[in-house]
Amino acid sequence: MSYPSNMQDSLNAVVAGRERRMSETFPRATADAKEALLRGFHPDFLADTFAALRIGPNSGDRTPRELALLLEADSTLPKMGTVPPGGQSPFPPTINQSKPDYTCDILIIGGGGAGCSAAIMADNAGAKVMIATKLRLGDANTMMAQGGIQAADKDNDSPAIHYVDVMGGGHFANTPDLVEALVSDAPEAIGWLEDLGAMFDKNADGSMKTIHGGGTSRRRMHTARDYTGAEIMRTLRDEVRSRSDITLLEFSPAVELLTDDKGEVTGAILQNLNLNRYSVVRAKVVIIATGGSGRLHYQGFPTSNHYGATGDGLVLAYRAGAHLAFIDTMQYHPTGAAYPQQILGLLVTEKVRSIGAQLVNSEGNQFIFPLETRDVVASAIIRECSLNKCITTPTAVQAVWLDTPMIEIRRGAGTVKRELPAMVRQFGRHGIDIAKEPMLVYPTLHYQNGGVEIAADCATNVPGLLVAGEASGGVHGRNRLMGNSLLDVVVFGRRAGVAAAKVAKERTGDPQLGLTHVERWRKELAAKGLGSEVKSPLLLPDYTRKSRCPALDH
Amino acid sequence: MAETGLVDIHIMGERHRVPDSLTILQAFEHAGYKLVRGVGCRGGFCGACATVYRLPGDYHLKFALACQTRVEPDMQLTMIPFYPANRSSYRLSELKGEAKEVLDLYHEMLRCYGCNTCTKSCPQDIDVLGYVAAIVRGDLAAAADISFDCIMCGLCVSRCPAELVKHNAALLCRRIYGRKLAPKSEHLARRRDEVKAGKFNSDIAVLKKQSKDELKKRYAERDIEPGE
């Protein structure tokens, strides 16, 4: 056995209760019970971890303190006309209007699922596309999504049924136009990915193998083993690389948008992370597809997110005047790995519960229906820990059991290895055979439910600025269902690419490049007595030993 | 596997003392490195943190993902930030889906002499030689299946004496399989057509007009397809 001896009693209770639990169905929670669970235990309701914004379009709205700090911060750019200390290539004191470093129709900031989908569609439409991405192309949360992608393409299902599930999952707060776009485009998105060569799990007759996810009323989750996001991302990335007309700049995050004197977005300033050089991009349209912000470790939670998920797009858009939506709600995935410490926070895909594993407390009892929505399951786990019906790991993390051996008993030997190869590998590296032993799990910071408010064509309230994917807000309301984020990045990435190409055609002449919005922001900061010590975007989290948040186990 | 002590490791020749519970990636950060290259998802999915190392008294070069591997005493570490690998250019829509096309685009696959170094260097435990053999014998379906868990870290390429770019060739096989060889899904094709014809527009228009309470009721009363 690979668990410490002080966990053995509890582990024995899990094993002893398994036969009873095999035939036991834990009842689904009523609407009232769900509400009580959320209000009592969900991190979104921990009032003192939130702050009200004091500046910008969302003044007065509350958001986690860590995000508020960055949204209220100053630009990282030196004041106009100054030279940054130690910079090899000082930020140009004046932007050369006639000679930007790059010119394109559409600048896409971010190279994950949404950015690549947008690039392919815009390239199809004949636009001159450039992708600037902070790390490598494809280094994004998309790559890590294991569970699946929803689409109502079976005969017993329909986009309307999918619509009701999404609205219910999002607590009916979702923007209806966005949900309509999501569910209506879903079958086409799956077909498009398959035409690009993505390998979905299928039966011999070609029908899609589909499973349930938390909160779904139909089995509409399409999978590619438990590498669904990786399969989609590597396909999209390969397609982008096959298109020589798309210009790609890696290790080049945007540090500021550029605007004209009417406040319309006209490009961006990029920072080459290898050479510490800035460059100026002129574009007729900018698409922000920078993803999420889990690496800000809201409320001190571990995260399942990619290293680059620091919310840059929200910061850039906000400073340029974009309105944000639902920034007071984050998704804590109920099952992050809690043990061993080396994989703390790493996602244990919901597919594990979809195919038959139960959540069990330290006494060996079920405490929640395994496929409630994520916020409800996460709250139930936190409640169980608050009642002390949990295991405490050697690194002082509280956790409950996820009984994976049940999958093998229910569906036959070899199922775990076949359906969950990534999970088997990750736990196997640390000596835990999940086909034979349960896992220890606790909620992990997983998804940014909100973001820049968009319309169904990805337009924002700032002309020239479109947003797609996790950086946008509205489609998932206050809680996202499993399998709708991969769908979101493909559906809205594609829509953004099409819409941007159209706008680019309509915008004639060379847009004027300026930073008046930054100057305006700085005046407003000063007027409100806010300091300029904190700069944003953050770009990368600081995990070095002398970091400002050394306690984080990431 | 709690932290039980400190170990000495050597990062590019420099000695650092770190907690023995850390992964290699965390050990770099503990030593003070702020990583830009050589780091990605931190969860074993992206292949950005491919690492080689040696252990004392062992002549073997060892391979790992820095985010997935725990430090060991006196590990001699370095990172491979990016390993250059040939990638052929193609448009999938213009390919016929024949095995010969993969060998035309990656003709070096025929140079494999079966040393199996690729398989030994794979952090995903993929039978790399097995899928290379499948490509050579023209079985793209097998190549796609065997290589499916590839995270494209490139460690197999770094060690190949015949200089094969296996992970890119495997990706091409999977894309050909996904588009051309996998059996077609009739229900998906039907639904794509139905959506294009606007079959569901009115249903959704009705839902969009419903009040929150009406929608809540509908949600609470929805029938749920049984699991398996």
Automatic annotation (TrEMBL), chain A:
This protein's record includes keyword Oxidoreductase: yes
Keywords, ordered alphabetically: Flavoprotein, Oxidoreductase
Domain FAD-dependent oxidoreductase 2 FAD-binding residues, every copy: 105-486
Molecular-function GO terms, alphabetical: oxidoreductase activity
Taxonomy, superkingdom: Bacteria
Protein name: FAD-binding protein
Species for this entry: candidate division WOR-3 bacterium
TrEMBL record, chain B:
Domain 4Fe-4S ferredoxin-type stretches: 103-132, 140-170
GO molecular function terms listed in the Swiss-Prot or TrEMBL record: 2 iron, 2 sulfur cluster binding; metal ion binding
Cited InterPro entries: 2Fe-2S_ferredoxin-like_sf, 2Fe-2S_ferredoxin-type, 2Fe2S_fd_BS, 4Fe4S_Fe-S-bd, 4Fe4S_Fe_S_CS, Beta-grasp_dom_sf, Helical_ferredxn
PROSITE patterns: 2FE2S_FER_1, 2FE2S_FER_2, 4FE4S_FER_1, 4FE4S_FER_2
UniProt keyword annotations, A-Z: Iron, Iron-sulfur, Metal-binding
Source species, domain of life: Bacteria
2Fe-2S ferredoxin-type domain boundaries: 5-83
UniProt name for this protein: 4Fe-4S dicluster domain-containing protein
Organism encoding this protein: candidate division WOR-3 bacterium
